[in-house]
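Table S7 (text form). Paired inputs.
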Amino acid sequence: MSNQHPGPPHEQPAAGSYGQPGSGPHEQAGPNPYAQPGPAYGQAGPYGQGGQPGEPGYGYPHAGGAPQGGFPPGAAGAPMALSLGDIAVTGDTIMTPAGPMPLKGAVWTATDMSRTEERIPTHAIVLAVVFFLFCLLGLLFLLMKERTTVGHVQVTVNSGGRYHSTMIPVQSPEQVMYVLNQVNYARSLSV
């Protein structure tokens, strides 16, 4: 006896084509009441590529409003004085993800949580072993040192009853000094 299937044979799709409403085994027949007609992929519709009239789509430059960094302009559109991680100082305001804070009277703290390690690189050990067999001068390769800095600098700001902290990754002692100098500049602006 052959197997009987309640639907059409597997070679022929159900009413409509695959990928359209009503064609899958678990979908209801008929049009989708929630589906909205729209432009094809890559084509602009009546609202541009975005969701609102006059709004550009993803990847297009904005005509106005907040800058691309996500921070609104400071008081009276003042330019950004400095940026430390996700903390920005504009005019007389400190902009953070926690909200704006007044610049006057702000308490800035910077904590260096990086470390610099010194070690003998692998290639120096290999050269020392190879040249040790030929002459004892190969041991001079063991004097080679490699310094690496890993970690981050934690910057905190407290002002107007709000507190925000950010971690800034660093890879060299120069970057640590740069961040600490930026915090000192922010302190001078807060006086």
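Next pair, protein 2 of 2.
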Amino acid sequence: MNDEGGIDMGEYASSDAAATLARAAELGSVVRRGTRWFAWYQVVFGCGAGLQLLIVGLLKPPYAASFSGVVFGAVMAGLGVYAGRQPVVRRGFGKRIAITVGAWALLYAAVLVPGFICFQGAAAWWMPGAVAVALPGLIGGYLEARR
């Protein structure tokens, strides 16, 4: 209150600002908790990609393409539904998922092409290749969990 019985605007403004800052901190905490799902998303993506590559490399055609397509299609459909049900995404989500998928695509091609040409059915090629293909998702999930 000021000398004339009115509200001191400085006092009002500082209490309003403090309440706004407290609300912003609360919302930031809610968003951080609400975006933890993306770490799991990336880990499941990585594991699904590795499994799909193992199926392609170790099963004989035509079963390899059919079975791997069904498995990876189910993983991606499940991840799509899961992601669509999440209330929030963290800033930079699009960039991080693009990096993950881009790295996966490069590694996938780097393992798949030589594998089909020289290493069909050779577990010694496909197993480490599957781990390499899974790494973008696993590393992305780890980094996201640390945020």
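The longest helix spans residues 9-34.
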